[in-house]
Design brief:
single chain; Rossmann fold; 357 residues; 5-stranded mixed beta sheet; 5-stranded parallel beta sheet
C-alpha cells in the first residue's frame, strides 16, 4: 500500500476544506488549526483525533507536545487500514512551534513512511508554503503537491445566476498586492514551470509599472473609492483577465495567455511603450493570437485591428499570428463587424453576453 506525504495550498478555503472532508479513506482525521497558542492547538488536535479514533484517554488527557501528537497519529494509523491525516492551516502550527518541520521530517523518515498513511499538510497562506514547505526544511520530503487556484469568472458566476453579464465582472477583484496583467502571466508561467521545464521563457512576459487605483485612506469606506471609478475597476484587471481566460478556453493549442508590454516603433525616430491586452502562446512560445479588450461605453472600431497588427509585430514569436480577438462591453462598429464577417476564422468578436453563454 502506497505511503505518501503531500502538501496543498490555496486561497479559497471553501473548496480546499470541502475537498478534505469528502474522505474516501477507511480512517480519516481532519484537523484545521487556528491562530492560537501551541497548547490550545494541541488540545484541539487531541480532541479531534479522540473523536475519530474513539480514544477516550486522549480526550481526557490531551497531548502536551507535537512529538506526542505524532505518536498518537502513528497509533491511529497502526490498524493496517488505509488512513488519512490532514493538518490544515499548517502555517499557524508552524509559527507556534518553529522546530515542527524538522520534527516532521524525522518522524516521517523513521515512523510515518512505514505506515499505511497519507499525511496532507495544507493551508491558505500560499507564500508560507512556497517558502517554508516547498522550499524550506521540508523540501524534497513530499510525494506530491497541489495548489488550488481561485475560481475563474465562469465558476464564480454560478453563485449569482440572476446577475447580468456586466455585473458578473464585479465578482473578480484585482489583487492589491500585485500589478495587473503582465504580472499575472508571470505568475502563471512560474507555476507552470514547476510542472514542465519546456514552457516558454519569461522574456515573452514583460511586466510594466503597476497602474492601480489608490488604496482607500484610513477611515474611508472602500466602496466610496471604488464606485466613482467602477469602470476602471472592472476594466483592469478584471475584464482583461476574463478575456484572457476566455481565449485560453477557446484558442486551440494555447498553453497560457497573458498581457504583453514593450516598445513599439511608429516612425523612424519615434517609439512608444504599448501593450497588448492578451497574447496567447503555444508550447514552443510562438504567438497564436492577440487581443484587444475594452470596457468602454463606445463601440469598438476598426482602429483596434490596425493597432493589433502594428503592435504584434514587435512581440517575440509573433511571426504567424493566426487570430485576432476583440472583446468589447459596448459592441462593435459596422466596419469592424464587416471585417469579422469576411473572415470568421481570423477575427472573433466577443461581448460580455457571449462569454457567459
Amino acid at each position: 500500500m502506497k505511503v505518501t506525504g503531500t502538501g496543498s495550498a490555496g486561497r479559497r478555503r471553501c473548496h480546499r476544506a470541502a475537498g478534505r472532508k469528502r474522505c474516501s479513506f477507511k480512517r480519516c482525521c481532519y484537523f484545521e488549526a487556528t491562530d492560537t497558542t501551541e497548547r490550545n492547538q494541541l488540545q484541539a488536535f487531541s480532541q479531534e483525533l479522540a473523536r475519530v479514533s474513539g480514544n477516550q484517554l486522549l480526550a481526557e488527557q490531551p497531548v502536551a507536545s507535537w512529538s506526542a501528537a505524532l505518536a498518537a497519529v502513528a497509533q491511529f494509523a497502526s490498524t493496517g487500514e488505509r488512513t488519512l491525516v490532514v493538518l490544515d492551516e499548517f502555517q499557524y502550527v508552524a509559527r507556534q512551534q518553529p522546530e515542527l518541520a524538522t520534527l516532521l521530517n524525522t518522524w516521517w523518515r523513521t515512523v510515518g513512511r512505514d505506515l499505511p498513511l497519507v499525511l496532507v499538510i495544507a493551508g491558505s497562506e500560499v507564500s508560507f508554503f512556497r517558502e517554508e514547505v516547498l522550499g524550506g526544511q521540508m523540501y524534497g520530503r513530499r510525494d506530491g503537491q497541489l495548489a488550488l487556484a481561485p475560481f475563474d469568472h465562469r465558476s464564480a458566476a454560478l453563485f449569482v445566476p440572476g446577475y447580468s453579464a456586466e455585473d458578473k465582472k464585479l465578482l473578480l477583484r484585482p489583487r492589491r498586492d500585485r500589478p495587473r496583467g503582465g504580472a499575472q502571466l508571470a505568475d502563471r508561467q512560474q507555476d507552470r514551470a514547476e510542472l514542465s521545464a519546456d514552457l516558454p521563457d519569461a522574456r515573452r512576459a514583460r511586466t510594466p509599472p503597476a497602474r492601480r487605483a489608490a488604496a482607500p485612506r484610513d477611515g474611508q469606506p472602500e466602496v466610496e473609492t471604488v464606485l466613482p471609478n467602477l469602470d476602471a475597476f472592472v476594466s483592469k484587471p478584471a475584464w482583461e483577465r476574463i478575456c484572457q481566460e476566455h481565449i485560453g478556453r477557446h484558442e486551440p493549442n494555447a498553453v497560457f495567455v497573458g498581457a504583453w508590454w514593450g516598445k513599439v516603433q511608429f516612425a523612424p525616430r519615434r517609439t512608444e511603450e504599448r501593450e497588448l491586452d492578451a497574447v496567447a502562446l503555444d508550447r514552443a512560445g510562438d504567438v497564436l493570437a492577440t487581443a484587444s479588450c475594452k470596457w468602454t461605453s463606445a463601440p469598438m472600431d476598426y482602429g483596434e485591428e490596425k493597432l493589433l497588427t502594428q503592435v504584434e509585430q514587435h512581440v517575440p514569436g509573433a511571426d504567424d499570428v493566426r487570430r485576432h480577438w476583440f472583446f468589447s462591453r459596448a459592441g462593435f462598429t459596422d466596419q469592424l463587424r464587416r471585417l469579422a464577417d469576411s473572415d470568421l476564422a481570423r477575427h472573433r468578436l466577443v461581448t460580455p453576453e457571449d462569454i457567459y453563454r
